[in-house]
Amino acid sequence: MFKAGFYEVDITPPLYLNMAGYPNVRLAETVLDNLYARAAVFEQGGTKVAILTVDMCSLQQSEISEIYDRVEKYTDIKRENILSCANHTHKGYPYFAKYAEDKTVRALREIFICRAADCIILANQKLEDCKVKYGEESESTVAKNRDYLMKDGTVRTNPGRLNPNIVKNVGNIDPSIPVLFFETADGTPKGAVFSYSCHQDSVGLEKGYSGDYASLISKKMKKQYGDDFVCVFLLGCCGDINHVDVTRDFIDKQYREIADKLFPKIVSAIENSEEMKDPELANIKEPIHIDYFDADAQMLEDRIKVYSEMKTWYWIRDMINLYLKEDRKDGLELRVQCIKIGDCLIYAVPGEVFVDFQLEIKENSPTKKNIFASLANGSSGYIPTPEVFENLYSYEAIPRGYAQDTGVRVKEKIMEIAKKMF
Questions:
Q1: Alpha-carbon distance 256 to 203, whole Å?
Q2: Residue 328: pLDDT band with limits 50, 70, 90
Q3: Closest Cα to residue 273, out of 368, 193, 179, 191?
Q4: Is the overall model pTM greater than 0.85, yes or no?
Q5: Is 418 exposed, middle or buried (0-12, 13-18, 19+ CB in 10 A)?
Q6: Distances (CA, A) of 276 to 112, 118, 192
Q7: Sign of the C-alpha dihedral computed for residues 23, 27, 30 and 35 taken in this order
Q8: Which candidate, 376, 360, 359, 366, places its Cα nearest to that of 345?
Q9: % of the chain at pLDDT higher than 90
Q10: Quick check: 272 and 136 in contact, CB under 8 A?
Q11: Helix, strand, or coil here: 376?
Protein backbone atom coordinates (compact mmCIF):
# COMPACT_ATOMS: atom_id res chain seq x y z
CA MET A 1 0.00 0.00 0.00
CA PHE A 2 1.16 3.53 -0.75
CA LYS A 3 1.70 5.63 2.36
CA ALA A 4 1.85 9.42 2.66
CA GLY A 5 2.50 11.84 5.51
CA PHE A 6 2.29 15.64 5.53
CA TYR A 7 3.35 18.32 7.98
CA GLU A 8 3.98 22.07 8.15
CA VAL A 9 6.00 24.16 10.59
CA ASP A 10 5.79 27.91 11.17
CA ILE A 11 9.24 29.39 10.46
CA THR A 12 8.37 33.12 10.55
CA PRO A 13 11.56 35.05 11.48
CA PRO A 14 11.90 38.08 13.77
CA LEU A 15 11.03 41.45 12.27
CA TYR A 16 13.53 43.96 10.85
CA LEU A 17 15.62 41.47 8.91
CA ASN A 18 16.31 42.04 5.22
CA MET A 19 13.92 40.14 2.94
CA ALA A 20 15.91 38.50 0.13
CA GLY A 21 15.02 38.99 -3.52
CA TYR A 22 16.13 42.50 -4.42
CA PRO A 23 19.47 44.33 -4.59
CA ASN A 24 18.23 47.00 -2.14
CA VAL A 25 17.63 46.48 1.56
CA ARG A 26 13.96 45.85 2.52
CA LEU A 27 13.50 45.28 6.23
CA ALA A 28 10.43 43.32 7.27
CA GLU A 29 8.27 45.64 9.37
CA THR A 30 5.26 43.34 9.78
CA VAL A 31 3.89 39.87 9.04
CA LEU A 32 1.39 39.73 6.19
CA ASP A 33 1.32 35.93 6.10
CA ASN A 34 3.30 33.60 8.35
CA LEU A 35 6.15 31.76 6.67
CA TYR A 36 6.19 27.95 6.64
CA ALA A 37 8.22 24.88 5.89
CA ARG A 38 6.01 22.16 4.41
CA ALA A 39 6.90 18.53 3.88
CA ALA A 40 5.48 15.40 2.34
CA VAL A 41 6.90 11.92 2.92
CA PHE A 42 5.95 8.95 0.76
CA GLU A 43 6.59 5.23 1.28
CA GLN A 44 5.98 2.27 -0.98
CA GLY A 45 7.72 -1.04 -1.54
CA GLY A 46 10.53 -0.33 0.92
CA THR A 47 11.32 3.08 -0.59
CA LYS A 48 10.89 6.37 1.26
CA VAL A 49 11.00 9.77 -0.44
CA ALA A 50 10.56 13.22 1.11
CA ILE A 51 9.76 16.63 -0.36
CA LEU A 52 10.53 19.82 1.58
CA THR A 53 9.53 23.30 0.44
CA VAL A 54 10.17 26.51 2.37
CA ASP A 55 8.86 30.08 2.15
CA MET A 56 12.10 31.78 1.18
CA CYS A 57 13.73 33.19 -1.94
CA SER A 58 16.41 30.51 -2.18
CA LEU A 59 17.71 27.60 -0.14
CA GLN A 60 21.46 27.11 -0.31
CA GLN A 61 23.40 23.88 -0.33
CA SER A 62 25.10 24.61 3.00
CA GLU A 63 21.74 24.74 4.81
CA ILE A 64 20.37 21.79 2.85
CA SER A 65 23.30 19.61 3.90
CA GLU A 66 22.71 20.31 7.60
CA ILE A 67 18.96 19.73 7.24
CA TYR A 68 19.69 16.34 5.69
CA ASP A 69 22.14 15.49 8.47
CA ARG A 70 19.40 15.95 11.05
CA VAL A 71 16.80 14.05 9.02
CA GLU A 72 19.16 11.08 8.57
CA LYS A 73 19.98 11.12 12.30
CA TYR A 74 16.35 10.80 13.40
CA THR A 75 14.66 8.90 10.53
CA ASP A 76 15.41 6.18 8.00
CA ILE A 77 15.07 8.64 5.10
CA LYS A 78 18.27 8.89 3.08
CA ARG A 79 19.52 12.29 1.90
CA GLU A 80 19.59 11.14 -1.73
CA ASN A 81 15.83 10.55 -1.42
CA ILE A 82 14.99 14.09 -0.29
CA LEU A 83 13.93 16.88 -2.62
CA SER A 84 14.26 20.33 -1.06
CA CYS A 85 13.38 23.64 -2.63
CA ALA A 86 12.45 27.25 -1.96
CA ASN A 87 9.18 28.63 -3.28
CA HIS A 88 11.01 31.87 -4.22
CA THR A 89 8.91 34.35 -2.28
CA HIS A 90 10.51 37.79 -2.33
CA LYS A 91 9.05 38.52 1.12
CA GLY A 92 10.84 35.82 3.09
CA TYR A 93 14.09 35.01 4.85
CA PRO A 94 17.34 36.98 4.58
CA TYR A 95 20.27 35.36 2.80
CA PHE A 96 22.07 33.55 5.61
CA ALA A 97 25.54 33.78 4.05
CA LYS A 98 25.23 37.49 3.22
CA TYR A 99 24.38 38.42 6.80
CA ALA A 100 26.53 35.83 8.57
CA GLU A 101 28.01 38.50 10.86
CA ASP A 102 24.58 39.44 12.21
CA LYS A 103 24.07 37.54 15.49
CA THR A 104 20.30 37.41 14.98
CA VAL A 105 20.70 35.87 11.53
CA ARG A 106 23.27 33.39 12.84
CA ALA A 107 20.89 32.24 15.57
CA LEU A 108 17.98 32.18 13.13
CA ARG A 109 19.94 29.95 10.77
CA GLU A 110 20.37 27.26 13.43
CA ILE A 111 16.70 27.38 14.38
CA PHE A 112 15.65 27.29 10.72
CA ILE A 113 17.75 24.19 10.00
CA CYS A 114 16.22 22.34 12.97
CA ARG A 115 12.64 23.35 12.16
CA ALA A 116 12.94 22.55 8.45
CA ALA A 117 14.40 19.14 9.26
CA ASP A 118 11.76 18.55 11.93
CA CYS A 119 9.08 19.24 9.35
CA ILE A 120 10.27 16.20 7.39
CA ILE A 121 10.67 14.17 10.59
CA LEU A 122 7.11 14.95 11.67
CA ALA A 123 5.70 14.24 8.20
CA ASN A 124 7.42 10.87 8.43
CA GLN A 125 5.63 10.24 11.73
CA LYS A 126 2.31 10.97 10.01
CA LEU A 127 2.67 8.24 7.38
CA GLU A 128 -0.52 6.28 6.74
CA ASP A 129 -2.14 4.36 3.90
CA CYS A 130 -3.38 6.74 1.23
CA LYS A 131 -5.04 6.83 -2.14
CA VAL A 132 -3.19 8.88 -4.75
CA LYS A 133 -4.98 10.91 -7.40
CA TYR A 134 -3.68 13.05 -10.25
CA GLY A 135 -5.49 15.94 -11.91
CA GLU A 136 -4.53 18.90 -14.04
CA GLU A 137 -5.99 22.28 -14.89
CA SER A 138 -4.81 25.39 -16.70
CA GLU A 139 -4.72 29.13 -15.96
CA SER A 140 -3.35 31.36 -18.73
CA THR A 141 -4.23 34.87 -17.50
CA VAL A 142 -1.81 35.05 -14.55
CA ALA A 143 1.67 34.23 -15.90
CA LYS A 144 3.39 36.61 -18.33
CA ASN A 145 6.70 36.13 -20.08
CA ARG A 146 8.65 39.23 -19.13
CA ASP A 147 10.68 39.65 -22.34
CA TYR A 148 9.33 42.12 -24.91
CA LEU A 149 10.25 43.26 -28.40
CA MET A 150 10.68 47.04 -28.45
CA LYS A 151 10.30 49.54 -31.28
CA ASP A 152 14.07 49.96 -31.49
CA GLY A 153 14.41 46.24 -32.31
CA THR A 154 15.84 45.19 -28.94
CA VAL A 155 14.30 42.60 -26.64
CA ARG A 156 14.09 43.84 -23.07
CA THR A 157 13.11 42.33 -19.75
CA ASN A 158 10.49 44.12 -17.67
CA PRO A 159 10.35 47.24 -19.90
CA GLY A 160 7.78 48.88 -17.63
CA ARG A 161 4.02 49.09 -17.45
CA LEU A 162 2.22 51.06 -20.16
CA ASN A 163 5.50 51.59 -22.03
CA PRO A 164 4.57 53.01 -25.47
CA ASN A 165 7.72 51.51 -27.02
CA ILE A 166 6.58 47.91 -26.49
CA VAL A 167 5.71 46.10 -29.72
CA LYS A 168 4.82 42.64 -28.40
CA ASN A 169 5.69 39.87 -25.98
CA VAL A 170 8.21 37.39 -27.39
CA GLY A 171 8.26 34.51 -24.92
CA ASN A 172 6.28 31.46 -23.84
CA ILE A 173 4.48 30.52 -20.64
CA ASP A 174 3.25 27.20 -19.26
CA PRO A 175 -0.29 27.65 -17.92
CA SER A 176 -0.65 24.10 -16.57
CA ILE A 177 -1.49 23.38 -12.91
CA PRO A 178 -0.71 19.71 -12.19
CA VAL A 179 -1.92 18.36 -8.83
CA LEU A 180 -1.21 15.19 -6.85
CA PHE A 181 -3.95 14.68 -4.25
CA PHE A 182 -3.71 12.32 -1.29
CA GLU A 183 -6.56 11.05 0.85
CA THR A 184 -6.79 8.34 3.49
CA ALA A 185 -8.51 5.02 2.86
CA ASP A 186 -11.75 6.40 4.31
CA GLY A 187 -11.64 9.42 1.97
CA THR A 188 -10.27 12.04 4.41
CA PRO A 189 -8.21 14.66 2.49
CA LYS A 190 -4.62 14.62 3.71
CA GLY A 191 -2.51 16.80 1.44
CA ALA A 192 -1.60 17.87 -2.08
CA VAL A 193 1.46 18.60 -4.17
CA PHE A 194 0.93 21.11 -6.96
CA SER A 195 2.99 23.30 -9.27
CA TYR A 196 2.62 26.53 -11.21
CA SER A 197 5.16 28.51 -13.24
CA CYS A 198 5.08 32.15 -12.17
CA HIS A 199 7.51 34.15 -10.05
CA GLN A 200 6.45 34.61 -6.44
CA ASP A 201 6.88 38.38 -6.33
CA SER A 202 3.35 39.76 -6.38
CA VAL A 203 2.71 40.90 -2.80
CA GLY A 204 3.43 44.56 -3.51
CA LEU A 205 4.76 47.53 -1.57
CA GLU A 206 4.15 46.64 2.08
CA LYS A 207 7.32 45.58 3.87
CA GLY A 208 6.14 42.40 5.51
CA TYR A 209 6.77 38.66 5.45
CA SER A 210 4.63 36.55 3.14
CA GLY A 211 4.84 33.31 1.19
CA ASP A 212 3.14 35.20 -1.68
CA TYR A 213 0.25 33.65 -3.62
CA ALA A 214 1.20 30.15 -2.44
CA SER A 215 0.46 31.25 1.16
CA LEU A 216 -3.04 32.41 0.29
CA ILE A 217 -3.74 29.24 -1.69
CA SER A 218 -2.67 27.16 1.31
CA LYS A 219 -5.16 29.04 3.53
CA LYS A 220 -7.94 28.53 0.99
CA MET A 221 -7.14 24.82 0.70
CA LYS A 222 -7.47 24.45 4.48
CA LYS A 223 -10.91 26.02 4.36
CA GLN A 224 -11.82 23.62 1.55
CA TYR A 225 -10.34 20.39 2.92
CA GLY A 226 -9.79 20.92 6.66
CA ASP A 227 -7.31 22.59 9.01
CA ASP A 228 -4.91 19.63 8.92
CA PHE A 229 -4.66 19.65 5.12
CA VAL A 230 -1.13 20.51 3.92
CA CYS A 231 -0.55 22.01 0.49
CA VAL A 232 3.01 21.55 -0.82
CA PHE A 233 3.66 24.11 -3.56
CA LEU A 234 6.47 23.55 -6.06
CA LEU A 235 7.50 26.51 -8.19
CA GLY A 236 7.66 25.44 -11.82
CA CYS A 237 10.32 26.67 -14.25
CA CYS A 238 9.74 30.42 -14.47
CA GLY A 239 13.11 32.13 -14.80
CA ASP A 240 11.56 34.39 -17.46
CA ILE A 241 7.98 34.44 -16.12
CA ASN A 242 6.24 36.85 -13.76
CA HIS A 243 2.73 38.23 -13.14
CA VAL A 244 3.27 41.73 -14.56
CA ASP A 245 0.71 42.77 -17.16
CA VAL A 246 2.40 45.68 -18.97
CA THR A 247 -0.99 46.88 -20.28
CA ARG A 248 -2.22 47.66 -16.71
CA ASP A 249 -1.19 50.10 -13.99
CA PHE A 250 0.53 48.77 -10.88
CA ILE A 251 -1.74 46.75 -8.58
CA ASP A 252 -0.69 46.47 -4.95
CA LYS A 253 -1.16 43.08 -3.27
CA GLN A 254 -1.85 41.42 -6.61
CA TYR A 255 -1.08 38.07 -5.00
CA ARG A 256 -4.67 38.08 -3.74
CA GLU A 257 -5.98 38.23 -7.31
CA ILE A 258 -3.57 35.48 -8.38
CA ALA A 259 -4.64 33.18 -5.54
CA ASP A 260 -8.29 33.83 -6.36
CA LYS A 261 -7.65 32.69 -9.93
CA LEU A 262 -5.49 29.66 -9.19
CA PHE A 263 -7.40 28.22 -6.23
CA PRO A 264 -10.61 27.21 -8.08
CA LYS A 265 -8.49 25.63 -10.80
CA ILE A 266 -6.65 23.51 -8.22
CA VAL A 267 -9.96 22.41 -6.71
CA SER A 268 -11.27 21.58 -10.19
CA ALA A 269 -8.15 19.51 -10.90
CA ILE A 270 -8.76 17.57 -7.67
CA GLU A 271 -12.47 17.09 -8.32
CA ASN A 272 -11.73 15.71 -11.78
CA SER A 273 -8.65 13.71 -10.77
CA GLU A 274 -8.18 10.01 -11.40
CA GLU A 275 -7.00 7.56 -8.78
CA MET A 276 -3.75 5.73 -9.46
CA LYS A 277 -3.90 1.96 -9.08
CA ASP A 278 -1.04 0.53 -6.98
CA PRO A 279 1.30 3.46 -7.66
CA GLU A 280 5.00 2.67 -7.64
CA LEU A 281 7.41 5.02 -5.85
CA ALA A 282 10.92 5.62 -7.17
CA ASN A 283 13.58 8.32 -6.92
CA ILE A 284 16.82 9.16 -8.71
CA LYS A 285 19.05 12.13 -7.84
CA GLU A 286 22.28 12.61 -9.78
CA PRO A 287 25.01 15.28 -9.91
CA ILE A 288 25.94 17.21 -13.03
CA HIS A 289 29.18 19.18 -13.41
CA ILE A 290 28.69 22.68 -14.79
CA ASP A 291 31.36 24.99 -16.17
CA TYR A 292 31.48 28.68 -15.34
CA PHE A 293 30.86 31.43 -17.85
CA ASP A 294 34.03 32.67 -19.53
CA ALA A 295 33.82 36.47 -19.39
CA ASP A 296 36.59 38.21 -21.32
CA ALA A 297 37.62 41.88 -21.24
CA GLN A 298 35.73 42.78 -24.44
CA MET A 299 32.51 41.29 -23.13
CA LEU A 300 32.97 43.20 -19.89
CA GLU A 301 33.45 46.47 -21.79
CA ASP A 302 30.44 45.89 -24.07
CA ARG A 303 28.09 45.04 -21.24
CA ILE A 304 29.21 47.88 -18.99
CA LYS A 305 28.50 50.32 -21.82
CA VAL A 306 24.95 49.04 -22.30
CA TYR A 307 24.24 48.75 -18.59
CA SER A 308 25.49 52.32 -18.04
CA GLU A 309 23.06 53.60 -20.66
CA MET A 310 20.26 51.69 -18.89
CA LYS A 311 21.46 52.93 -15.45
CA THR A 312 21.30 49.37 -14.09
CA TRP A 313 24.26 49.78 -11.79
CA TYR A 314 23.98 46.48 -9.94
CA TRP A 315 24.16 44.65 -13.30
CA ILE A 316 27.57 46.28 -13.75
CA ARG A 317 28.56 45.10 -10.27
CA ASP A 318 27.53 41.52 -11.10
CA MET A 319 29.43 41.57 -14.39
CA ILE A 320 32.63 42.89 -12.80
CA ASN A 321 32.41 40.30 -10.01
CA LEU A 322 32.06 37.55 -12.58
CA TYR A 323 35.06 38.79 -14.55
CA LEU A 324 37.29 39.03 -11.46
CA LYS A 325 36.48 35.66 -9.87
CA GLU A 326 39.27 33.52 -11.21
CA ASP A 327 38.60 30.88 -8.53
CA ARG A 328 35.56 29.79 -10.53
CA LYS A 329 37.55 28.07 -13.27
CA ASP A 330 36.87 24.56 -11.97
CA GLY A 331 33.10 24.90 -12.24
CA LEU A 332 30.60 23.49 -9.79
CA GLU A 333 28.30 20.55 -9.16
CA LEU A 334 24.54 20.85 -9.47
CA ARG A 335 21.94 18.17 -8.72
CA VAL A 336 18.95 17.08 -10.75
CA GLN A 337 16.27 14.71 -9.51
CA CYS A 338 13.20 12.78 -10.62
CA ILE A 339 10.56 11.32 -8.31
CA LYS A 340 8.13 8.81 -9.80
CA ILE A 341 4.72 8.37 -8.19
CA GLY A 342 2.72 5.94 -10.28
CA ASP A 343 2.75 7.33 -13.81
CA CYS A 344 3.53 10.88 -12.62
CA LEU A 345 7.03 12.34 -12.69
CA ILE A 346 8.24 15.19 -10.50
CA TYR A 347 11.17 16.88 -12.24
CA ALA A 348 13.43 18.84 -9.86
CA VAL A 349 15.93 21.26 -11.38
CA PRO A 350 18.32 23.75 -9.76
CA GLY A 351 18.07 27.50 -10.14
CA GLU A 352 15.66 29.72 -12.03
CA VAL A 353 15.29 27.69 -15.20
CA PHE A 354 13.60 29.22 -18.25
CA VAL A 355 10.15 27.91 -19.09
CA ASP A 356 11.17 26.76 -22.60
CA PHE A 357 13.22 23.98 -21.02
CA GLN A 358 10.17 22.83 -19.06
CA LEU A 359 8.02 22.81 -22.19
CA GLU A 360 10.62 20.78 -24.09
CA ILE A 361 11.00 18.27 -21.25
CA LYS A 362 7.23 17.81 -21.11
CA GLU A 363 7.08 17.33 -24.87
CA ASN A 364 9.61 14.50 -24.63
CA SER A 365 8.63 13.07 -21.24
CA PRO A 366 7.81 9.34 -21.02
CA THR A 367 4.53 10.32 -19.30
CA LYS A 368 1.81 12.93 -19.73
CA LYS A 369 1.67 13.55 -15.98
CA ASN A 370 4.48 15.95 -15.14
CA ILE A 371 5.16 18.25 -12.18
CA PHE A 372 8.13 20.62 -12.03
CA ALA A 373 10.12 22.02 -9.11
CA SER A 374 12.71 24.71 -9.77
CA LEU A 375 15.20 26.18 -7.28
CA ALA A 376 15.60 22.58 -6.12
CA ASN A 377 18.49 21.02 -4.21
CA GLY A 378 20.33 24.32 -3.98
CA SER A 379 19.94 27.67 -5.69
CA SER A 380 22.11 28.51 -8.69
CA GLY A 381 20.77 31.71 -10.24
CA TYR A 382 19.17 32.09 -13.64
CA ILE A 383 19.54 29.31 -16.19
CA PRO A 384 18.42 30.84 -19.52
CA THR A 385 18.25 29.38 -22.99
CA PRO A 386 21.59 29.79 -24.83
CA GLU A 387 20.39 32.53 -27.19
CA VAL A 388 19.41 34.78 -24.29
CA PHE A 389 23.08 35.19 -23.36
CA GLU A 390 23.54 37.20 -26.55
CA ASN A 391 20.88 39.74 -25.54
CA LEU A 392 22.53 42.55 -23.58
CA TYR A 393 19.16 44.05 -22.65
CA SER A 394 17.71 40.96 -20.99
CA TYR A 395 17.80 40.91 -17.19
CA GLU A 396 18.34 37.16 -17.13
CA ALA A 397 21.18 37.46 -19.66
CA ILE A 398 23.51 38.92 -17.07
CA PRO A 399 25.99 36.09 -16.62
CA ARG A 400 25.40 34.72 -13.12
CA GLY A 401 28.43 32.51 -13.45
CA TYR A 402 27.23 29.52 -15.46
CA ALA A 403 28.20 28.55 -19.00
CA GLN A 404 25.79 29.14 -21.87
CA ASP A 405 25.09 25.42 -22.29
CA THR A 406 24.06 24.92 -18.62
CA GLY A 407 20.32 24.84 -19.31
CA VAL A 408 20.72 22.42 -22.19
CA ARG A 409 22.87 20.10 -20.12
CA VAL A 410 20.46 20.18 -17.16
CA LYS A 411 17.58 19.40 -19.53
CA GLU A 412 19.41 16.51 -21.17
CA LYS A 413 20.50 15.07 -17.82
CA ILE A 414 17.05 15.07 -16.27
CA MET A 415 15.47 13.63 -19.41
CA GLU A 416 18.04 10.84 -19.25
CA ILE A 417 17.01 10.14 -15.65
CA ALA A 418 13.30 10.21 -16.52
CA LYS A 419 13.74 7.58 -19.22
CA LYS A 420 15.41 5.27 -16.70
CA MET A 421 12.24 5.32 -14.61
CA PHE A 422 9.86 4.03 -17.27
A1: 8
A2: low
A3: 179
A4: yes
A5: buried
A6: 35, 29, 14
A7: positive
A8: 366
A9: 80
A10: no
A11: strand
